[in-house]
Amino acid sequence: MSVSFVIESWAACAPGVDTPQRWSQWVAAPWLPEGEPQVALAAVAPMLRRRFAPLGRLAAQAALDLAGDERLDADRGIDDNPTVYASRYGETGRCLELLADQARGAALSPTGFGLSVHNAIGAMIALARGDRRNSSAIAAGRATAAAGVVEAMALLDDGAQCASLVVYDSPLPGGYEEFEDEPSAHFAWAWRLRKPRAGERALHLDWQAASTDDAAMHPELPSSLQALWFGLSDAPELVQQADGRRCVWSRDA
Known about the structure:
This protein has helices at residues 20-28, 46-49, 54-67, 92-103, 110-114, 120-129, 144-157, 223-232; strands at 2-13, 83-86, 135-138, 163-169, 187-194, 203-209, 237-242, 245-251. By secondary structure, it is of the alpha+beta class.
């Protein structure tokens, strides 16, 4: 399977990397962001803002920065510029709190459960923006960012002119951290994707059978941050291994 796409615009945020200039420095010499996220999310009304956990704040800030001054037209179709939300782990901290409550015999909070499901962050961002357009939420292990691109391009094949992809994750909380199989950090990034026009330089993503000969690029980064690095850099290729598959990111010369 192969898809070709263009990143029309982007936004990203992580602890210590919160301006385009800092992201340019990061692309030139990537490092694993450290520390806890401090996201004010000032554009969101206080009553809704307090429902966002730190991961949701990161995702919301990236999505809002990508949207910029875009005005939502109530008459536009719900399939115009859909959004794909992609996170390997999602709100695992909220899930662990619910399991702890259940183990103690405490009543489970319906609100807590509603905010823990995988599409909750996307739903809250839609509420904050008054956005009625189509959105979906996916998780695909180490291939989460790649799967998000494929999902976005499938929506373009269905007729959308462009699609937004928001990718975000945080380290697993205590109790789950032993299951981490790659470096982890707090981060979120967003791309607005469209199909390439005739003669336009494009990016490509190919899914192939796994190979044991691949050398990992930037192994100090989680897979989804590797994808961001490739998208923002001029690197000719990035190869990732994910669940028995080989994801090859490349760009036209």
